[in-house]
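Lab notebook, page 48
Experiment: co-folding of the full assembly
Goal: obtain a model of how the components sit together before planning crosslinking
Operator: M.T.
Materials (sequences as entered):
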Amino acid sequence: MSTQQFDVVVIGGGPGGYIAAIRAAQLGFNTACIDEWKNDKGGPAPGGTCTNVGCIPSKALLQSSEHYEHLNHHFAEHGITADNVQIDVAKMLARKDTVVKQNNDGILYLFKKNKVSFFHGRGAFVGAKDGLYEISVNGTPTLAAKHVVVATGSNARALPGTPFDEDKVLSNDGALRIGAAPKKLGVIGAGVIGLEMGSVWRRLGAEVTVLEGMPTFLAAVDEGVAKEAAKVFKKQGLDIQLGVKIGEIKTSKTGVTVAYADAKGEAKTLAVDKLIVSIGRVPNTIGLNVEAVGLKLDERGAIVVDADCKTNLPNVWAVGDVVRGPMLAHKAEEEGVAVAERIAGQHGHVDFDIIPWVIYTSPEIAWVGKTEQQLKAEGRAYKAGQFPFMANGRARALGDTTGFVKMLADAKTDEILGVHIIGPFASELVAECVVAMAFKASSEDIARICHAHPSLSESTKEAALAVDKRTLNF
Ligand code: FAD
Ligand code: NAI
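Observation: model returned without errors.
Model output:
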């Protein structure tokens, strides 16, 4: 096969890679994207972890399981009752697969629309000659490129000595494909995946125990929010044990037993039907053949980049989960756009200080900027304002009054430094706060902007008013 030459070749078609490829093509570059993900028929399934076994399928299952929980527990107060409520897990999973496929197909359509050449297979460096990088697809040297963007993502981290079998010991992949709600589900790691997937299967009837190594629950989250979340999740029936030390894990035909020491050091055993291990993810450069060109990795296996996503090699860039920073789809996308623009000589920019985080549990948890404990540690003088959803008319009408909005602002300048939300549609409410922070708004700015009534967003305005101790509805 003859070598095809491109201006930009992107390796990896997840949110970092496919967005970088589209933006590069929009900027007039002859662009190719290589992605190896296969659907169940062996065909291409671009979109990466996010589309195939991450953001999208997890949110599909969270939605289905929330409908089921509402019908079982919350609709009666609206006067809606149903007998014999059933969950057809196979149908729920099939719907999730359809949602995933719509996203895969959408990306293939976008590649066509933007004239990005798509190659299905594994991309690897072969070498570099005359200012061009040679890239193979499935072992065959096929492409040459002036610029290469590596966006090869991450993989689930396994516990040492306990590989994922995706039947009893599950990564995020298996956790999204459990064929029937297990009677007992164990989760190791009370992070984002543990809480989201634990919530899905608890709502569908599993007895869920979460074993967390850290003594603090959601240590990266604002303390007030984490405390409220712990209270609510406990009430929902999630048994979250902190400060544990995991010992031997044994699997049998029927289930899994986990030996562990609890926070007091007492030896305990947890016997479950399925075990999800969600203890973080590792950057993925498997099969990329970085040695061929001398691409530098750090001790965690992440590709070393500077603030502009430049690697140690000229014209080789890396974005998303395979580099430093939070492992979030929108962070990967922003880096992808910025890199394409930098290749074009523009000034692509990612503001790492205002990347929003969302945990899609019920209630949702969302935040942007600094937590109260971070500001205290920095010795920064700040003012805090908090408004409970209990005092918001729309939340009462929704029947979802758990949680609050907390706004933190600089004591002198009043610039917003962080916003922390636990409650209904926190994922949507946080967007206003990100915009405000991007424009360096003060809490007074938000307090003086008209918010629609009745809407949950009035709680953000009221939290801003609370910073100046002048709430109107609380
Ligand atoms: P990936 O999405 O991992 O994509 C990398 C792609 O590169 C893959 O398709 C892979 O097959 C391909 N690839 C790798 N090596 C090669 C090679 N050599 N040749 C060709 N192709 C290759 N983030 C959020 O922001 N919001 C969420 O709600 C959210 N939910 C999540 C839920 C779960 C269960 C998980 C596991 C993750 C979730 N994330 C979420 C994180 C998000 O999925 C990642 O941050 C995001 O996918 C990273 O994008 P990426 O492009 O860097 O890598
Ligand atoms: P995580 O980093 O969110 O949580 C891992 C948890 O496991 C931590 O609380 C950690 O203390 C604990 N842990 C680590 N080792 C342990 C051990 N040996 N024993 C017991 N506990 C241990 O990682 P998670 O949940 O695997 O998710 C990976 C990443 O995927 C997230 O960090 C996030 O970037 C992304 N993600 C984002 C989502 C979102 O944006 N809504 C949803 C799901 C994942």
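Interpretation: The domain at 4-156+282-350 is CATH 3.50.50.60 (FAD/NAD(P)-binding domain).
Next step: discuss with group before ordering constructs.
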